[in-house]
Design a protein that fits this description.
With 93 residues, the chain is α+β, with helices and mostly antiparallel strands. It has helices at residues 52-62, 64-68, 78-92, and strands at residues 4-6, 13-15, 19-24, 32-34, 44-48. The strands form two sheets. It has a three-stranded antiparallel sheet with strand order 4-3-5. Strands 1-2 form a two-stranded antiparallel ribbon. α1 (52-62) packs antiparallel against α3. The longest helix has 15 residues, at 78-92.
């Protein structure tokens, strides 16, 4: 049985194979990275694999990415979320 998680954007519950996992990298520059195999430790948020750009925009507006990652201040620009998604998509192809 595959685990079920909720999309941070559209709030639908799906299996983890239908979602993209975004994880905050803990280096000097707090930036998002796509965890392709789901094995990296740490807090993460999920977005729908079918339409990640729409769900990312929705999650950014509702600040659910920041809440899901438990970030205290600031935030993550939508551009960095979209660039992490496009970078992961280019690696898959």
């Amino acid at each position: 049985m595959t685990p079920v998680r909720m999309c941070a954007g559209c709030r639908t519950r799906r299996s983890t194979s239908d979602l993209v996992r975004l994880r905050l990298q803990s280096d000097a520059h707090e930036r998002l990275a796509v965890d392709t195999d789901g094995s990296l430790p740490g807090r993460s948020v999920y977005l729908c694999r079918e339409h990640p750009e729409e769900c990312a925009a929705r999650a950014h507006r509702s600040r659910s990415i920041i809440r899901g990652l438990r970030m205290m201040e600031g935030g993550i620009p939508l551009e960095s979320v979209l660039s992490a998604l496009s970078h992961a998509r280019s690696k898959e192809e």
